TrEMBL record:
<dbReference type="GO" id="GO:0035999">
    <property type="term" value="P:tetrahydrofolate interconversion"/>
</dbReference>
<feature type="binding site">
    <location>
        <begin position="167"/>
        <end position="169"/>
    </location>
    <ligand>
        <name>NADP(+)</name>
    </ligand>
</feature>
<keyword id="KW-0560">Oxidoreductase</keyword>
<dbReference type="GO" id="GO:0009086">
    <property type="term" value="P:methionine biosynthetic process"/>
</dbReference>
<dbReference type="InterPro" id="IPR000672">
    <property type="entry name" value="THF_DH/CycHdrlase"/>
</dbReference>
<dbReference type="GO" id="GO:0005829">
    <property type="term" value="C:cytosol"/>
</dbReference>
<keyword id="KW-0511">Multifunctional enzyme</keyword>
<dbReference type="Pfam" id="PF00763">
    <property type="entry name" value="THF_DHG_CYH"/>
</dbReference>
<keyword id="KW-0368">Histidine biosynthesis</keyword>
<keyword id="KW-0028">Amino-acid biosynthesis</keyword>
<dbReference type="GO" id="GO:0004488">
    <property type="term" value="F:methylenetetrahydrofolate dehydrogenase (NADP+) activity"/>
</dbReference>
<dbReference type="GO" id="GO:0004477">
    <property type="term" value="F:methenyltetrahydrofolate cyclohydrolase activity"/>
</dbReference>
<protein>
    <recommendedName>
        <fullName>Bifunctional protein FolD</fullName>
        <ecNumber>1.5.1.5</ecNumber>
        <ecNumber>3.5.4.9</ecNumber>
    </recommendedName>
</protein>
<dbReference type="InterPro" id="IPR020631">
    <property type="entry name" value="THF_DH/CycHdrlase_NAD-bd_dom"/>
</dbReference>
<dbReference type="InterPro" id="IPR036291">
    <property type="entry name" value="NAD(P)-bd_dom_sf"/>
</dbReference>
<dbReference type="InterPro" id="IPR020630">
    <property type="entry name" value="THF_DH/CycHdrlase_cat_dom"/>
</dbReference>
<dbReference type="GO" id="GO:0006164">
    <property type="term" value="P:purine nucleotide biosynthetic process"/>
</dbReference>
Length: 299
C-alpha cells in the first residue's frame, strides 16, 4: 500500500491544467489575446503521434489555439526550416514545438537553433538553456520543471537538501540539475561513467532518475526517507503472473515495489512525472504568450 507515499502527478497535472485554463480565459478577456501553440510532427513515429495528439487536445481543452503541422518523413531540412521561420513570424503562434526525434537526415540542432527563443516552449534552445543556467527569466524544459513543481509541493523549501540527478541529457538531467541548484539544493549529477552509482544515489534526500533503464534503481540505492522522482518511461514485457502472454507494460527507472518501504515519497510510473510534462507545456505556452505581449503572469 503506497498511501501517503505516492506523489500523484496525474492529480497535480490536472489541477495545473485547470489553473492554466482559467488564466488563459482571463488573458483573452482582459487583453484580447488567445495563446497559440504550433506543434510540428515530421514522419509517422507511432509514439510521437500519440504525444502530439495529446498535446493538441490538451491545448484546446485549456482554451488555446492549436496549429498542427504534419510533414512527411521525406521532408527536407530546408522545408522544415522554412516552416519554423513562418511560425516564428506568425503573430497567432506564441509557442512552437517540433516533436523529437526527427528523421535522421534532418539535423535536430539546426532546427532547434532556428526557433525564436521567445516561442521555444520546450526550452531546448541554447539561449533558454543559458538563461536558465544564469538564473535569468527563461522558458524551462517541461519535464524537469514538472519534477521541480512536484518536489516543492511535497517538500516546501529545498534549501540545503542533497539532490542527486541520474542522467545528464539536455532534455531532462541537465536542466533538472540547474533547477535544483536554483532552488538551493546541493546537486550531484551522475551518468554512465559515474563510479559506484548506488553509493552516490544513497546520499540523496532527493533522487531524480532520468536514465531510461527499467527498474535500475533498487532499495539498496536509497537513503531512508528520500523523495524519489522517477522520470523513466520504459516498455517491458508484462511479467506479472496474471498478465496475458505477449503483453507489455510501462515501468520507470526505479523498482517501485522494492523502493516503497524505504522512501519518504515517490512518483509512480505511469501517473507520476508523465502527465506533468504536457501540463507544463501549456503553462509555458501561456507564459510565452503573456511575455510576448509584455505582460507578466504568476503560475
Ligand atoms: P537520454 O538517453 O538522452 O539520457 C540518459 C542519461 O542516462 C544519459 O545521461 C546517460 O549517461 C545516463 N545513463 C544511461 N544508462 C546509464 C546507466 N546504466 N547508469 C548511469 N547512467 C546511465 O534520455 P532522456 O534524458 O531523454 O530520458 C531519460 C528517461 O526519461 C527515458 O526513460 C525517457 O523515456 C524518459 N522521459 C520521460 C519524459 C516524461 O514526460 N516523463 C520526458 C523525457 C524523457 P551518458 O550521458 O553518460 O550517456
Amino acid at each position: 500500500d503506497d498511501t501517503g507515499k505516492r506523489i500523484d502527478g496525474k492529480a497535480f497535472a490536472a489541477a495545473l491544467r485547470t489553473r492554466v485554463g482559467a488564466a488563459t480565459a482571463d488573458l483573452e478577456r482582459r487583453h484580447g489575446v488567445r495563446p497559440g501553440l504550433a506543434v510540428v510532427l515530421v514522419g509517422e513515429d507511432p509514439a510521437s503521434q500519440v504525444y502530439v495528439r495529446n498535446k493538441r487536445k490538451q491545448a484546446e481543452e485549456a482554451g488555446m489555439a492549436s496549429f498542427h503541422h504534419t510533414l512527411p518523413e521525406a521532408t527536407t531540412e530546408a522545408d522544415l526550416l522554412a516552416l519554423v521561420e513562418r511560425l516564428n513570424q506568425d503573430p497567432a503562434v506564441h509557442g512552437i514545438l517540433v516533436q523529437l526525434p526527427l528523421p535522421g537526415h534532418i539535423r535536430a540542432e539546426r532546427i532547434l537553433l532556428a526557433i525564436d527563443p521567445a516561442k521555444d516552449v520546450d526550452g531546448f534552445h541554447p539561449v533558454n538553456a543559458g538563461r536558465l543556467a544564469s538564473g535569468m527569466e527563461a522558458l524551462v524544459p517541461c519535464t524537469p520543471l514538472g519534477c521541480l513543481m512536484l518536489l516543492k509541493d511535497r517538500l516546501g523549501k529545498l534549501d540545503g537538501l542533497e539532490a542527486v540527478v541520474l542522467g545528464r541529457s539536455n532534455i531532462v538531467g541537465k536542466p533538472m540539475a540547474q533547477l535544483l541548484l536554483g532552488a538551493n539544493a546541493t546537486v550531484t549529477v551522475a551518468h554512465s561513467r559515474t563510479r559506484d552509482l548506488p553509493a552516490v544515489a544513497r546520499r540523496a534526500d532527493i533522487l531524480v532518475a532520468a536514465v531510461g533503464r527499467p527498474r535500475m534503481v533498487g532499495a539498496e540505492w536509497l537513503k531512508p526517507g528520500a523523495t524519489v522522482i522517477d522520470v523513466g518511461i520504459n516498455r517491458i514485457p508484462d511479467d506479472r503472473p496474471d498478465a496475458e502472454p505477449g503483453k507489455t507494460r510501462l515501468v520507470g527507472d526505479v523498482d517501485y515495489e522494492s523502493a516503497l518501504p524505504v522512501v519518504g515519497a515517490i512518483t509512480p510510473v505511469p501517473g507520476g512525472v508523465g502527465p506533468m510534462t504536457i501540463a507544463v507545456l501549456l503553462r509555458n505556452t501561456l507564459i510565452a504568450c503573456a511575455r510576448q505581449r509584455g505582460l507578466t503572469l504568476d503560475l
